[in-house]
Amino acid sequence: MRSPSRFLPCLALTLAACGGGGGGEQIVKPIDTIPQLPTQSLRQLAETRHPRVAIGVAVGGLFQSSNARSQQFMTILPREFNALTPENDLKFGPLRPTRETYNYTRADAMVAFARANNMKARGHVLVWHQQNPGWLTNGTWTRDQAIQILEEHIANVVGHYRGQLAAWDVVNEAFEDGAAPLRQSVWMQRIGRDYIERAFRAARAADPTVALYYNDYNIEGLGAKSDSVYELLRDFKARGVPVDGVGMQAHFIAGQLPATMRQNMDRFAALGLKIQITELDIRVPTSSVGGASAASLATQAQNYRDVFNLCLQVQACDMVVVWGMTDADSWVPGTFPGQGDALLYDAFFNPKPAYTAVRGLLAGN
Length: 365
Fold this sequence. Notes:
Layout: H1 42-49, E1 54-59, H2 68-80, E2 83-86, H3 92-95, H4 105-116, E3 120-127, H5 134-137, H6 143-160, E4 167-172, H7 186-190, H8 195-206, E5 211-216, H9 224-239, E6 245-248, E7 251-253, H10 261-270, E8 274-285, H11 294-313, E9 317-322, H12 332-335, E10 339-340, H13 353-363
Parallel strand pairs: 1-2, 1-9, 2-3, 3-4, 4-5, 5-6, 6-8, 7-8, 8-9
Antiparallel strand pairs: 8-10
Helix pairs in contact: 1-13, 6-8, 11-13
């Protein structure tokens, strides 16, 4: 969804500096004091007890970097997770800085790492209204030219990873909030509403087997926006447009999970769609002095368990992806001041109550 935050409050004097974020070089804990991991990891429990549901994480600046935090990240990554999503490296802007240039190096390394460690990889994202290059957004394209750029991009990128990915987020966040009209993105303005269908058809032509997803936020429960997405995908299924699933981002606030999430998932499943929780984080109130309260973290832990449990219960749901590993590397604090600590691990890679709650669920406790 969003680009990673570069803001982090000073948590303690053990931080070398504030603002580690993305690359995270400033937040270093001595290697000999890294907490011991549980005997059975999330991945081991999922694969032995719940093999239908993969557990994924978004990977970004810490992936194969040359610092102590990256070493910790790369150790935990294949132990605890059996799926990964490149956080930014497959978005249009970072991937294609000029019309003629594609920068596949980092994304290729992530996909190769997933393959070497028997992990699934998700492609995120082909078509979005953000993180587009200036040459695209500032161009005075005719409709036909915009269609050509869209289709050539999808053909190149999906074709490059043909047969290597478990899923693609083909179109991301096409709807506004509220009454949920289609967002006036560069694609909507230059092509019109049929850009969404064109994107899915181009993706299927480039890879006949990869699962194709529509991805969005605030569509987890019943409401105007999820209704709009439902009607779009219902129409696509009726007309044979190649869509295989819906991605529910699940950027939540602790204590505010949608009460109608199961009902909503069931109606998408009834269309014959797969469901994936694609960008899960659950933010809590924080302060620069005390961080998050124990009560907030307890609520967060229960909510994480609830979301994972829903995916275990709904047969159409086959993956949950957490949007980052540690609180130090989350996009949340930079976007929602006074909120954060949204992930399974704290800034020092300590498993939080949320991790323990998910692990207990997977273990049958």
